[in-house]
Design a protein that fits this description.
139 residues; alpha+beta; Immunoglobulin-like; 4-stranded mixed beta sheet; 46% strand
């Protein structure tokens, strides 16, 4: 009985060694999801007060952050709403094209407290487009 267990253990150690050997050498590893890849935007944010520095959403009177993206090629508009205190959001799915992207810091009634124009983002392939870190600046 000990011989088959030793062989299985040796095979397992060999397989692990081969897997680890493939990870060395400083190459780039790309992980792709098994399902269909969809286009979307990812963004993080913070709120800064000119008088107090960084502040939280409650202090700013903010409830949500809206990502408003208009496809300039087709005219399609996509609006995604995230809780302000999440300080990040991932929108999706969207179509391919050139997008004009705005981020709106909004109060509980939907009124815009501050707006940041992210600019034009070109989506030509499937995947997540990182819009970066946005700072809402309040008076």
């Amino acid at each position: 009985m000990k011989l088959p267990i030793a062989r299985m253990l040796g095979a397992a150690i060999g397989a692990i060694g081969l897997a680890l050997a493939g990870c060395g050498g400083g190459g780039t590893v790309t992980v792709t999801p098994a399902g269909a890849v969809q286009d979307n935007f990812f963004v993080t944010w913070e709120i800064d007060s000119l008088a107090f520095g960084p502040i939280d959403c409650a202090t700013a009177g903010a409830a949500t952050v809206d990502l408003d993206a208009v496809n300039a090629d087709t005219g399609s508009r996509f609006v995604f709403t995230f809780p302000c205190d999440a300080f990040q959001g991932q929108a999706g799915p969207i179509d391919v094209g050139n997008f004009d992207v705005l981020l709106n810091l909004t109060d509980a009634s939907g009124g815009v407290i501050d707006q940041v124009n992210v600019g034009t983002e070109n989506i030509t392939q499937s995947g997540t487009i990182d819009l970066g870190h946005v700072i809402f600046r309040l008076q």
